[in-house]
Amino acid sequence: MDTPKDCDDDALIDEARQGNELAFRRLVECNQDKLFAAMIRMLGCREDAEEAVQEAFTRAFLRIEDFNRQSKFSTWLYRIAFNSAISEARKKRPRVSLDQQFDDTGSETIDEDARPVDALMLRDEQIQVVHQALDALSEEHRAILVLRELDDLAYKEISDILGISVGTVRSRLNRARGRLREVIEAIQANVSEQGVSDENKWV
Fold this sequence. Notes:
Elements: H1 9-17, H2 21-43, H3 46-62, H4 73-92, H5 98-105, H6 118-122, H7 127-136, H8 139-150, H9 155-162, H10 166-200
Helix pairs in contact: 1-2, 2-3, 2-4, 3-4, 4-9, 7-10, 8-10, 9-10
């Protein structure tokens, strides 16, 4: 059974930098499951998630000398994976960033007391609806919800991963939560209307 020592990032990184492929393979084993789960939530497709994780580890291996240890290895790895995933998602589904829309209008509302969506996400019957709603969001909003609401990362770690300030993390998260609720409510309303329509067919 693996012990915490087996995943000692500093020791493994030192060995990986010296060309020890087994050490880097151990870094992969220590981080791949969590990263894969995050990529599935981010990309909504198992094949795309597998490709993103593979790409992230390949880039990490080639750039291991650039890792300066100012953050955790997992944070650095997430940054590589999420930046790549966001870029690929934009290529497949070009859209104007919602954050850019707020910047263009010069308006932004930050509600520090905004209700998190954790409880909503924990309801089994909402899982499919939440995933459908996440896929409808902008890449920036989907990423920050995955990192905060699903992976439960701290604001500072999210800041490091996405390359934005903690203040921007808070405001973007607030907007993303609000947008997610709007999309979920629209999906649920559509389902309800469809249900009524189906019932009327038999009246």
